[in-house]
Design brief:
7-stranded mixed beta sheet; 3-stranded mixed beta sheet
Length: 369
């Protein structure tokens, strides 16, 4: 799953991205990789992995991860090709969620001035600018696609009709300056939902606001961050306050030094951990686990996935030849100490193809291909 980081120039977007990817590179037992200069793999902090390891010895622990894309080129007029407009549009259409970085500091750490692209710091104006560019890009897509969809719908093909109908619903919404996700919330027809998702629209993607705050406001309680929080609440989005400068420093420290710095700021954990969890939640993901002597691993799946679909995350053959799953919870392991004791106590559940996975399930899959 991919999340794209967007933001206007000089809001701290690249500093934040580098902090996230540096933190991933230093995560213990984690095979971090930078896929491209602007793409990194970020681990999802998960204390349950350590709990499982208390009872099951293993060679390696692998957390679930999120692919993070630093999307460049978003400036006023990007939807019309300004900046790196074309590259920006292709990159952002490829992600599953949008993390919008908003500047909530007046001067940079050290007191130096970092000029805002619009001359003054105004987070709501910045959000409006970004949202407008994304909406305009989608509006162009819909206006271009509608005539062809109307011609195709004359055949009465259900998919073609659904595509036309959803385009007709979206067009006036985008024209009013509202995102396409507004339409998604009102559609119940499964064919139209499928058609909407197939359009590749940017503003149908879920969105998270990252308030890049000053060192004096690490909890995001100042006026600038509060504006972003209120905007997020009004639009049904999430908001995470982060001081990118602090996080970039923390990412390069060992655990003991990191704990000392966090204590100095009155924080229990790096804000990047909160961001990783928020992005995971934004994508509608949860984790299940596999555990053995070679590896303990967290696997990301969409909430509502069935046992065969979860097996398919490990390997497509597992889903194709799925027979059943043997499942227990982390709490079962803590209480009974071993998988053998869990089995003998009758707490090892045998689940079939219709089982809906629960967050925190520990699984063994049986399959035949």
């Amino acid at each position: 799953m991919k999340a794209g980081i967007v933001g206007l120039p000089n809001v701290g977007k690249s500093t934040l991205f580098n902090a996230l990817t540096n933190a991933g590179a230093l995560a213990a037992n984690y095979p971090f990789a930078t896929i491209e200069p602007n793409v990194g793999i970020v681990p999802i902090p998960d204390p349950r992995l350590g709990v499982i390891n208390q009872y099951i010895e293993t060679e390696k622990i692998v957390p679930a991860s999120l692919e993070l894309v630093d999307i460049a080129g978003l400036v006023r007029g990007a939807s019309e090709g300004a900046g790196k407009g074309n590259a920006f549009l292709s990159n952002i259409r490829d992600v599953d969620a949008i993390c919008q970085v908003v500047r909530c500091f007046e001067t940079a750490p050290g007191g130096e001035d970092i000029l805002h692209v619009d001359g003054t710091v105004d987070p709501i104006r910045d959000i409006d600018t970004i949202d407008s560019e994304l909406i305009l890009a989608d509006l162009q897509t819909v206006e271009s696609a509608l005539p062809k969809a109307e011609r195709a719908a004359k055949s009465k093909d259900p998919d073609a009709v659904a595509r036309r109908d959803v385009l007709v619903k979206i067009l006036p919404v985008l024209g009013e300056g509202r995102p396409a996700r507004v339409v998604l919330e009102s559609i119940t027809n499964p064919d139209q939902i499928k058609a909407l998702r197939g359009l590749g629209l940017i503003t149908v993607k879920p969105q998270l606001f990252i308030a890049n705050v000053d060192e004096s406001d690490v909890r995001g309680e100042g006026d600038l961050a509060r504006c972003v929080r209120e905007r997020a609440e009004a639009s049904g989005a999430e908001m995470v306050p982060i001081c990118a400068k602090i996080e970039s420093e923390l990412a390069e420290l060992d655990p003991s030094d990191k704990a000392e710095i966090l204590a100095d700021y009155g924080l229990d954990e790096p804000a990047l951990d909160a961001l990783a969890h928020a992005a995971y939640h934004l994508l509608g993901l949860q984790s299940f686990y596999t555990a053995g002597p070679k590896e303990i691993r967290a696997w990301p799946i969409r909430i509502g996935s069935t046992a065969p679909q979860a097996a398919g995350v490990i390997h497509t053959d597992f889903e194709r030849g799925f027979i059943r799953a043997e499942i227990y919870s982390v709490d079962d392991l803590v209480e009974l100490k071993t998988e053998k004791a869990i089995r003998e106590a009758g707490r090892l559940r045998i689940e079939g193809k219709g089982y809906v996975m629960q967050d925190g399930d520990v699984c063994h899959f049986l399959f035949n291909v």
